[in-house]
Amino acid sequence: MARVGVFVCFCGANIADFVDVPAVVEEVKKIREVKYAVYYKYMCSDPGQQIIKDAIAQYRLTSVVVAACSPRMHEKTFRRAVSEAGLNPYLLEIANIREHSSWVHQKNKKAATEKAGDLIRMAVAKSIANEQLHEISVPVTKRALVIGGGIAGIQAALDIADAHIPVVLVERSPSIGGRMAQLDETFPTLDCSQCILTPKMVDVASHPYIELIPYSEVIGLEGYVGNYKAKIKKKASYVNFSLCTGCGACTQKCPVKVPNEFNMGIDKRKAIYTPFPQAVPNKPVIDAEHCNMLLKGKCGICSKVCEKGAIDYTMKDEVIEREIGAVVVATGYDLWDPKPYEEYGVGRFKDVITSLEFERMVSASGPTGGLPIRPSDGKVPKTVVFIKCIGSRDEAKGIEYCSKICCMYTAKHAILLHHKVHDSRAYVFYMDVRAAGKGYEEFVKRAQVETGTTYLRGRVSKIYKMGDKLMVRGEDAQLGQVVEIEADMVVLATAIIPYKTNPALARLLGISYDKYGYLSEAHPKLRPVETAKAGIFLAGCTQAPKDIPDTVAQASACAAKVCGIFSGDALKKDPMISVVNPDYCSGCQNCVQVCPYQAITTEEIPITRGSKETRTVAKINEGVCQGCGSCAAVCRSMAISLKGFTDSQIINEIVSI
Amino acid sequence: MTKLTYFPGCSAHGTSEEFDHTLKLVMKTLNVELEEIPDWNCCGATSAHVMTENLALSLPLRNLVLAEKLENNTMGIACASCYSRMKSTKKYMDEHPDKAKELTSSVIDEGEYTGKVEIKSMLQFCYEEVGVEKIKSLVKKSLSGLKVACYYGCLLTRPKGVTQFDSPEYPMSMDRIMEALGATAVDFDYKTECCGASFSISRTEVVHLLTGKILEMAKEAGADLIVVACPLCQSNLDMRQPDIEKHLGKKIGIPVMYFTQLMALAFGYPEKELKLSKHIVPVEEALSNIGKVVETPQQPTKTKKAVPSAESEAK
Amino acid sequence: METQEKEVKGSVQSAENPGLTAPADWQPVIIGILCNWCSYAGSDLTGTSRIQYPPNIRIIRVPCSSRVDPWFIIKSLQATADGVLISGCHPGDCHYIAGNYYARRRFLVIKNLLNFVGYHENRVQFSWVSAAEGAKFAQVVAKVTDDIKKLGPLHRYKKENF
Amino acid sequence: MNYTKQIQDIASKLFTEGKIDIFIGYQQNSFDDNQVPVLITDPAEIPKLVFSDKSVFNLTNYLKFEHTKNKRVGLVVKGCDSRSLNLLLTEKQVKRENLYVIGVCCEGVTDDNGAKAKNCEVCVMPDPVVYDEILGNPSGKKPYRVDPDVAEVAKMPLVERADYFEEIFQNCIRCNACRHSCPLCYCSKCCIDQETSTLYNGSNTVSSAVHALLTWSMHLAGRCVDCRNCEKACPSHLPLHLLHKQNEKVIFENFQEHLSGMIADDRGAFYKYNQKDPDDFIM
Q1: N or C: which end of chain A has fewer CB within 10 A?
Q2: What is the mean pLDDT of chain A?
Q3: Where are the beta strands (DSSP E) in chain D?
Q4: SS3 of A252, please?
Q5: A with C: 3 or more CB pairs under 8 Å?
Q6: How many domains are there within chain A?
Q7: Domain identity same for D116 and D184
């Protein structure tokens, strides 16, 4: 027989003025299971809590009901008090008679009193069905996995590793560095991208707590927060990195030329290559799709010139496993293909290029030695038109959102053009100039004033060819006129888009993604780096378009979160999660389908004790379950119950009124 | 012999008689029988939809209902404007069957609309249903040596959601057909530019400006003549040319022909069948280029410039 | 004295059993099942804002509207409730990502089924109330209470009657 | 529609080749011209097998019992039966590799009076959707139609409808034959038998019957394939299909024309969602 104690709070005048508290206590005393009922001015005060503690001992209470303010307010306080009295803290129930009665029925004391009585009756009924629950402790593997070796991944890995936590950094290309390595100078300070990035890349390579696995991809992730197991596929590089010294003899002698993706195809690289001179690790890989030896079995020059014998044509893809406790996803962004802009002659006019192509051209280490040139005839352009929002904010052809960085990098390009070609003239067609950021507006002003770049508000309607010039026709909306500019080159500020591989990666990790393919954060404002899956965090443009400062900030935030998880030997979790009664489970797996956290898997159990034959039943992963109860509601045989909100507890509440 | 429902539109019996005539010749060679919709009416063109929505929908809808009675799956439309009106109406009706029911029961007394007939422009029909390969196989007299600029105008490929045909900005279907006939289709940036047709009567100076630009650009691209698939384009580009020349103060003199005229010519019909006398800008000189050897490079803008050779420069 | 006069003045008919009536000052019992993160927080805000609403509702807290098994609704109607209100987060705002989308499907079906077998459609109502919509919660409760007062007491299939 | 010969041939071939342990089919009743299900383990009994428009029962129901679990089973399915089989496969209650399915392109079965069965009038899929071997010529998916009985009841005014159902529910004797005969009611412990459920509250009242039946129909909503085994099994001849068809109608009309068990791996309507699902009934 349950022995319930009820403690009704006056909350000063807050409750007592509108609810006849002594009458309520008398009413409650009539409930069979209630062995003790009392009221006090402030239950949450120390003497108030002492009343509860004393009563638990004196009346051997099996559960406690506090009728006071909302459980969202003081549930934790009273749980602690109950716990200190030696009772399991989850045997406490709160009847919310302040927010739900005294404050909302101030003109009807009779009804408010009656309602308070009912609310307490419900809480008493529920508490009778309460069970002892214990905080869940989940062991933690203190190693982090960072997916992606761009600036986001590099920053997160360094910050975590600096806290003496081992990091596995997986990069899909042969070198870390990512998009930032492709950039020339960075806004708004125009400091050289390579100069600030390369030291960090070297730090990663030499850090004792970082295991760098380049030219690899994560192909599987099992487990839950603190206890993940990652499968990583190391792509065959055909070069034994432990023997290779990075001398570069092979890349010089290789006869096969392939468009260089690092330079946006402006120049050629070899079939055996390091993506760029400052690559980390500075070891070449063989591109199996173009290598004559691997394709036709003829050539073998690189093997001949390699003094160390590091070339191994028989190398195969290899899958390795790492046990980890948390994941930072930092896979970066791709660029929108402007092909749908047929009216701009994309694909037909060679001198209509994208902004990243322009970026490579003006890069001192780029394919043109830092000078912008027209791809059609190799001449240096004098008049360059920059068009912003190519694909961004364009529902018809591209995507709806703003890519956030194009305004700034276009201003940067206008300045860089002026730096490289002093007698040049730049025009920028824009929809809006969005320069929110420290020093950003000033930077745009600098482009406009210092370099004399003409900013034209309006869209370009057409580009056509006149001789070897590109005629750019657009609207100057501020003048209300059509303008035509005779340009040597047109640069399209193409939108940032997520990699097409994002949805597959999200499914693999068990996290969600939005309609564009960006990975989704748990809450747009208050949990911007977490995902809905505990222990997986997002950094950089894989979550949404952002610039380098924001990316680095988010990466460091991820590192702080990861370090938080690893701060203890075990993770403590709220015990109010679902549990399966295997006797009742028939294994239909509909719960697996509706669980938003992939917290439900299946297990095989013997049909009867000791039997060899097995049947499949659902199994809740304690580490992953967040306690929403979706599974409990769809379980037809009621094999799943949500602790703290069991069917019995809720039905008790319903029938007690 | 396949049958095709034919909607000629008002101009086919007037200003674009040569289009209508050569179209019929071409279809004969392609073994397609044109079945003209009996008792067809005006499509409403640019005038109806500024009046009332119901009028703008009812006029084409009546034609669509009549077309369904002919039991051919496809209807070919000669005029680009008619094509646009009919196709937009069809799209609207297919999406709003209630409206179709309302109009067929109240305004139009010709039976129900089911939406079973597909609508294609004649250009689209030749490109999609007949195909470039078949056209190529039927050529008796190659048009090699003739350089043409294909002008599509605004309505044949736009709006994309309605026409569902070719690229809205840089279509190539007519160019491909011309190449099949042996002619050289020049790279023509103005192929979908507006000719100003709507201001044809009210503000001719707009037409002069816009059409003038198209003509100049065709000339610039090195074309001997402009090929069109729309009667309104033809009349604007051809008929207005003397006025435009006066307006610009320079001679252009580029003839404007229907793609069907050139097809008929290539299919072996004699020149007199092309009704060349209907043209304002004489075409004979342009056609005399047929058979001449094309010198390459024929055009500065078309030449392939040396690759920038970024490597050499970087080194 | 006043209340007595009112009692004399009229009575409320049960929508499903027109023969059965209750006194005019009859007060319905309404069970409200609220999700913890939006609607329960919203109802707390109603309280802190001191927005007044009719006192007939008895609130049960669940973590998510997806925890609501249609059987809870059936059970409530079998017990003392004359009406049921279920409230959760707005679509897209679910604390548990998509719980309310699943719940919404079940709600539509159970609502129609109950109406089909002879419960008035207003007996069971649903709302999306966010944690910021304290005023909306009061409006919703006022509307539901008003609706159910008009329907009169629920008699059919009550445990004590059948 | 008579496939007796073909089914007997296939069954004996399966036994000869050792592919199955049990064959589930239909046999002639001994006292009238109706048929009952038969489970054959001995090939000598094959001549018992018949199939005609009297083969009304959904045999997939027999896959949930102990003597067919984890055995290799050959069975005959019509269109609706195959849909429930599809769901059983999706819900992992049977293993596909254990089954040899003879799918019959159904031309409609008859009721006790020899008239076309009422569920066949509104059948959406007469052809089997899962099978190893097919008999007859597929006639394709049929357009969905609202059940005429549901439409008629829905037209009644509220009070009349309530009275109508009250009479139905009063006649329920709580024997649970409906549950027992339903192929999709395979739970190892049904909710209405559990103490926590308190649906019955140990009582045998109309109230508990109503709530049990409503809960039951909610558990089948978006899953029921309208085979009407339940109705055939009901000793009180309750029109149980009204509940299922009502739910089916709401689900079809609102949730992207969902129909149960039509596609492999398609779970019931409650185990997926669409952001554009109706929202206007919620304040």
Answers
A1: N
A2: 93
A3: 22-28, 35-40, 49-50, 73-77, 99-104, 133-135
A4: helix
A5: yes
A6: 5
A7: no
Fold of C28-151: Rossmann fold (3.40.50)
Q: Which residues of C touch A103 (CB under 8 A)?
A: 47-48, 50
Residue D246 structural domain: 148-271
The verdict on D130 and D167 lying in the same domain is no
Q: Is the Cβ of A257 closer than 8 Å to some Cβ of chain B?
A: no
With contact defined as beta carbons under 8 Å apart, do A85 and A57 qualify? Answer: yes
CA distance C159 to chain A (A): 11
What is the model's pLDDT at position A337? 95
**D100 and D165, same domain (yes or no):** no
Q: State pLDDT tens for residues A33-69.
A: 999 999 999 999 999 999 999 999 999 999 999 999 9
**ipTM metric:** 0.64
Contacts of B185 in chain A (CB under 8 A): none
Most C CBs within 10 Å: which of D273, D274, D276, as the mutation test of the C interface? D273
Do D68 and D188 fall within a single domain? no
DSSP secondary structure string, D154-203? HHS-HHHHHHHHHHHHHT-----HHHHH-TT---SS-GGGSTTT-SSTT-
Q: Render the burial of A461-495: b for 16+ CB within 10 Å, e for the rest.
A: ebbbbeeeebbbebbeeeeeeebebebbbbbbbbb
D222 touches chain C (CB under 8 A): yes
Tracing tokens 């309605």 back to the chain, one arrives at: B162
Identity of the residue in B169, B308, B314 whose CB atom sits nearest the CB atom of A374: B308
- The predicted structure's pLDDT at residue C9: 54
Residue ranges per structural domain of chain B: 2-122, 140-294
Start-to-end CA span in chain A (Å): 20
Strands B32-36 and A191-192: unpaired
> How many of the other CB atoms lie within 10 Å of CB of A321?
11
C48 at A interface, C-beta within 8 A: yes
Which of D75, D100, D135 lies at the terminal end of a domain, its last residue?
A: D135
Indicate the pLDDT class of residue B309, thresholds 50, 70 and 90: very low
Nearest CA in chain C to A633: C69
Asked whether the beta carbons of residue C105 and residue D199 sit closer than 8 angstroms, the reply is no
**A341 and A479 in a common domain:** yes
* B243 pLDDT more than 50: yes
Which residue has 């749980």 as its token pair?
Answer: A79
DSSP string, chain B: -EEEEEE--GGGGTTTHHHHHHHHHHHHHTTEEEEEPTT-----HHHHHHH-HHHHHHHHHHHHHHHHTT--SEEEESSHHHHHHHHHHHHHHHH-HHHHHHHHHHT--S-------EEEEHHHIIIIII-HHHHHHH-SS--TT-EEEEE-TTTSS-SHHHH--S-SSS--HHHHHHHHTTPEEP--TTTT----GGGTTT-HHHHHHHHHHHHHHHHHTT-SEEEES-HHHHIIIIITHHHHHHHHTS-----EEEHHHHHHHHTT--GGGG-GGG-SS--HHHHTTTTSPPPSS--GGGS-PPP--HHHHH-
Q: Please determine, for residue A495, whether its predicted confidence score (pLDDT) is greater than 60.
A: yes
- Please tell me the pTM assigned to this model: 0.69
Look up the domain containing A602 and give its range.
574-656
Contacts of C143 in chain D (CB under 8 A): 283
Q: What gap in Å lies between CA A155 and CA A209, rounded to an integer?
A: 14
Minimal CA separation from D256 to chain C, in Å: 12
The answer regarding whether domain B2-122 maps to CATH 1.20.1050.140 reads yes
Asked if B310 lies within 8 A of A267 by C-beta distance, the reply is yes
- Closest residue of chain C to A111, computed from CA coordinates: C55
Asked if A449 is an interface residue toward chain C (Cβ–Cβ < 8 A), one would say no
User: Which residues of chain A lie closer than 8 angstroms to B301, CB-CB?
Assistant: 465, 467-468
H/E run at residue A615: strand A614-620
